[in-house]
Design goal:
- This protein has about 210 residues and is α/β, with parallel strands linked by helices.
- It has one domain.
- The protein contains six helices and six strands; from the N terminus they run H-E-E-E-H-H-H-H-E-H-E-E.
- The strands form two sheets. It has a four-stranded mixed sheet, covered by helices on one side. A two-stranded parallel sheet has the order 1-6.
- The protein starts with 15 loop residues before the first helix and ends in a 14-residue tail after the last strand.
């Protein structure tokens, strides 16, 4: 008796569902991704062998450019709104809602309080054209140390925010010392801070040997 042949079935796989899932995932990542805001000025950080990563969220960033100008920024639009409200009330700057919104959307400030209103009168895209002299940092006089006030109010608004300093490798030491002394002030809650550097090879590491994490 001849064997009965079994009809061959198609091995084609319907990819429609997989394509739908792929597009859903792509849409999710496009909407959920938070891009890192640009720095107020360009700096070339010094190199070190430390591979400790500083968090990119919930952070206060102090930037020092090669000319010794000091800039302040912190992440989170609602947090920045609360900060500028506190600064406006304390310094009696008379900022408008539009100027406060420009601060919340800015990539950082580097001006004294008496120039802040003029700076925030510009849209965030135009603020880099402003000739920012830097935030005053005078460790001998508390009233003249405006960086201390920015950091102190920022810590009151967000006590969990971490402090980081991003300085150019060519900046003169007295400026760095003044910034570090300000951040180490006991009146600033949680005065531990991090220095941002670029990673270089460990001179004590043998060739072909993996560095311990």
């Amino acid at each position: 008796m001849p064997k009965k042949k079994i009809a061959r079935k198609s091995t084609a796989i319907d990819m429609t569902a997989m394509c739908d899932v792929s597009f859903l995932l792509l849409t999710f990542f496009m909407l959920a991704t938070k891009f890192k805001p640009p720095d107020p000025v360009e700096v070339v950080t010094p190199a070190s062998i430390s591979d400790t990563k500083v968090a990119e969220t919930n952070i206060i960033t102090i930037t020092i450019d090669k000319n010794g100008r000091v800039f302040f920024d912190m992440d989170g639009i609602p947090t920045k709104h609360a900060l500028i409200d506190s600064i406006d009330r304390s310094m009696r700057l008379g900022l408008t809602p539009a100027e406060k919104q420009n601060f919340a959307l800015s990539s950082g400030v580097g001006v004294p309080f008496n120039q802040l209103k003029s700076f925030l009168n510009l849209q965030p895209a135009d603020q880099k054209s402003f000739k920012s002299p830097g935030i005053p940092v005078d460790t001998t006089l508390t009233d003249s140390n405006e960086l201390f006030k920015w950091v102190a109010y920022a810590r009151l608004v967000n006590p969990e925010a971490r402090l980081s300093v991003k300085g150019d490798g060519g900046v003169k030491y007295p400026v760095v010392r003044a910034v570090f002394s300000t951040l180490a002030n006991k009146k600033i809650q949680g005065h531990k801070f991090y220095a941002v550097t670029s990673l270089k090879a460990n001179p004590n590491q043998k060739e072909g040997e993996e560095e311990e994490k």
